[in-house]
Amino acid sequence: MANSFRLKAPFPPSGDQPRAIQEIVESIQAGNRFTTLLGATGTGKTFTVASVIAQLDRPALVLGPNKTLVAQLCSEFREFFPNNAVEYFVSYYDYYQPEAYIANTDTFI
């Protein structure tokens, strides 16, 4: 079966990226539900994640902490995966307030 997720990048992984990619791939293949990738701004975390997606040949849900970063991530993933659907959703709300229950007034907010 041909790879569905073909990474298009003008550069290969460098520095710590090859090791990080391999360790994340192995972690996911081992069945670990959570893996954390830490790195300073500009260290290639997005490219590392794109490389993992390509190696595993699996779709991914990528979450971001704010609307600006999510738009940037979407743009970069569209460049890395020009032949795949890369979409994003931004909440209509400025902040999230989870549902809460006030017991003494029997009120849901």
Structure, explained:
The chain is mainly α. The chain has a domain at 17-90: Rossmann fold. It has 3 helices and 2 strands, in the order αααββ. Strands 1-2 form a two-stranded antiparallel ribbon. A hairpin with a 4-residue loop joins strand 1 and strand 2 (107-108). The protein is elongated and about 60 Å long. The mean pLDDT is 91.
List keywords for this structure.
Rossmann fold, 3 helices, two-stranded antiparallel sheet, 2 strands, 36% helix, 109 residues, mainly alpha
CATH domain class of the domain at 17-90: Alpha Beta
Number of H/I helices: 3
**Sheet with the most strands, sense and barrel status:** 2 strands, antiparallel
Averaged pLDDT, please?
91
Strand content: under 5%
The gist of it:
This protein has helices at residues 17-29, 45-56, 67-80; strands at 101-102, 107-108. It has 109 residues and is mainly alpha-helical. The chain has a domain at 17-90: P-loop containing nucleotide triphosphate hydrolases (Rossmann fold, 3-Layer(aba) Sandwich).
